[in-house]
Specification:
The chain has helices at 9-23, 34-46, 63-79, 83-87, 139-147, 160-172, 207-211, 215-218, 235-241, 260-266, and strands at residues 90-92, 95-97, 129-133, 152-157, 179-183, 195-200, 246-255, 274-275, 283-287. The protein is α/β, with parallel strands linked by helices. The structure holds S-adenosylmethionine.
């Protein structure tokens, strides 16, 4: 940072980074460190995409933009709300989504497999139908619809508030004709429906870990995070019931986070394939026939 008050975009990114670090805020809602979050905050205040920031680093920041940066930073430090809620935006699998406190900030590792341009390895060839179970903001459903343009997508959540946000995102991405939003407690309202691909990032945080969550995470809907004593309250019904909702060639892609260990302990004989992603290995991948072994005891 140049000496004195920040003047350029670069100065402001470094200034915001410094303030975030000294305030000990938590990251993990779209960024993993202070530099990236500072760049996002400044780009949000400048009303440009974060990817456009690097071309403007030497630009002088004008009065109204300065005021917006300072106001955003003040609110981030005071409320400890995730930056996404303050900007009303999240970036997921390379695309922008609307978010507010009615939904968890989308950050599922499943997004890594739905990036634009990459031929996604998850689905069987000729995929026609996808289910996003526990859709929240709709980010996975929408990214999957982009990744597999010939497929129809059902997107399910139990929360009316989440479905309202998801509907807004479906409109934002112009996918009303291809994504159907459904209110359902897991598979309850999906009787008879079968899919080539089921994607799910359900709540999986164990009770004990819920108590230890940093403030930013406690701003998110509890319904989106809490997974019961060992984190498996929703994971288990999903592995038990997916089989009857998959087509013969269908696949299940399920993020389980830290409940992976509890799941492996409960099913020591089960075949587990954990997809390697940048942050962690907690996204399970099963062909329909591999799910036979998962039965309630
Ligand atoms: C971890 S969030 C995932 C949201 C979104 N898929 C994402 O990755 O950002 C889990 C979602 O599951 C929903 N949910 C919780 N219990 C559910 C249930 N029994 N049936 C369907 N959805 C449920 C919550 O409302 C929340 O939106």
């Amino acid at each position: 940072m140049s000496s004195g008050a920040p003047r350029t975009v670069r100065d402001y990114v470094l200034y915001v980074e410094h303030r975030l670090l000294t305030a000990h805020v938590s990251f993990g809602h779209g960024t993993s460190n202070a530099r990236d979050e500072a760049a996002w905050l400044v780009s949000g205040a400048l009303r440009i995409a974060p990817s456009a920031l690097s071309n403007r680093l030497a630009t002088l920041v004008k009065g109204p933009e300065r005021a917006r940066i300072r106001a955003l930073l003040a609110s981030r430090l005071r409320t400890r709300a995730p930056l996404s809620y303050l900007l009303r935006e999240a970036w997921f699998a390379g695309r922008r989504f609307y978010v507010d406190k009615r939904v968890i900030v989308p950050r599922s590792l499943i997004g890594e497999f739905l990036m634009p341009g990459d031929p996604s390895p998850l689905a069987p060839p000729g995929i026609r139908s996808i289910l996003d179970l526990c859709t929240g903001s709709g980010a996975i459903a929408i990214s999957a619809a982009h990744a597999y343009p010939a497929a129809h997508v059902d997107a399910v959540d139990i929360s009316d508030e989440a479905l309202t946000v998801a509907a807004r995102n479906v409109r934002l991405h112009g996918l009303e004709g291809r994504i159907q939003l459904l209110k359902s407690d897991l598979f309850t309202a999906l009787s008879g429906r079968r899919y080539d691909l089921i994607l799910s990032n359900p709540p999986y945080v164990a009770d004990q870990d819920m108590d230890d969550l940093p403030c930013e995470y406690r701003r998110e809907p509890r319904l989106a995070l809490a997974g019961g004593p060992d984190g498996l309250d929703l994971v288990l019904p999903i592995v038990y019931q997916s089989r009857e909702h998959l087509t013969a060639r269908g696949r299940l892609v399920l993020e389980v986070g830290a409940s992976r260990e509890a799941l492996e302990t409960r099913f020591p004989e089960a075949p587990f394939l954990w997809l390697a992603s940048e942050a962690d290995e907690c996204v399970g991948y099963w062909h329909k026939e591999d799910l036979d072994i998962f039965r309630p005891s």
